[in-house]
From TrEMBL:
This protein's name: Orotate phosphoribosyltransferase
Listed CDD domains: PRTases_typeI
Gene3D superfamilies in the record: 3.40.50.2020
Phosphoribosyltransferase domain ranges (all copies): 59-174
Organism: Flavobacterium anhuiense
Catalytic activity: orotidine 5'-phosphate + diphosphate = orotate + 5-phospho-alpha-D-ribose 1-diphosphate
Length: 214
């Protein structure tokens, strides 16, 4: 679910402007999973544009507090959401931790890095939601440390049905600055893509795991 329509449209426009989101229906990208995709999203680029990263920071901070109440801690999912998560925590005057994909193999073997006390209320910040699997692994790592997860806030989601099911099953409320639906509407409006290309992009979102396979 998006925080609000205005933010969703503005965020989509900014991501397109800096090529954080690339749309190429005729020459699809191949994801690490092997899926063929007419879209590629790299929200790490946000950090390289001060005015845009400040916008994302401010929208996160404002809407997190409005939707979840002010948490005790902000947690970022490594590695893509560490930078944005720190910005949000700084804006809200809160402690920050981050979650590795798996525990370290040496030292203290931490998966959650930073100071976290049992029972603290945590909002998790993520850069991108596809199936939600890796994001929810971070949630489980935080819960295993005794955290109370208030919800997750992400920059962008593809809006896959499997992600919605995964978040529901994990009992985690997800809100995003923007999503695939608003992105496509904005992309047509601003002439980044044609209406025919929009149809192709919509078809992909229905069955992304099998799209483009002969």
């Amino acid at each position: 679910m998006i925080f609000n329509k205005d933010t969703a449209e503005k965020t989509a426009e900014l991501l397109l402007q800096i090529n954080a989101i690339k749309l190429n229906p005729e020459n699809p990208f191949t994801w690490a999973s092997g899926w063929k995709s007419p879209i590629y999203c790299d929200n790490r680029l946000i950090l390289s544009f001060p005015s845009i990263r400040n916008y994302v920071r401010d929208e996160f901070a404002k809407n997190i507090e409005k939707q979840f109440g002010k948490p005790d801690v902000i947690a970022g999912v490594a590695t893509g959401a560490i930078g944005v998560g720190i910005l949000v925590a700084e804006s809200l005057g809160l402690p920050f931790v981050y979650v590795r994909p798996e525990p370290k193999k040496h030292g203290r073997q931490n998966q959650v890095e930073g100071f976290l006390q049992k029972g603290q209320n945590v909002v998790v910040v993520e850069d991108l939601i596809s199936t939600g699997k890796s994001s929810l692994m971070a949630v489980e790592a935080l819960r295993s440390e005794g955290a109370n997860i208030k919800g997750m806030a992400a920059v962008f989601t593809y809006g896959f049905g499997v992600a919605e099911e995964n978040f529901k099953e994990a009992n985690v409320d997800l809100f995003t600055l923007s999503n695939y639906e608003n992105l496509l509407d904005l992309a047509v409006q601003k002439q980044y893509i044609t209406e025919d290309q929009q149809s192709t992009l919509q078809e992909w979102s229905v069955s992304p795991s099998t799209w483009g396979q002969e």
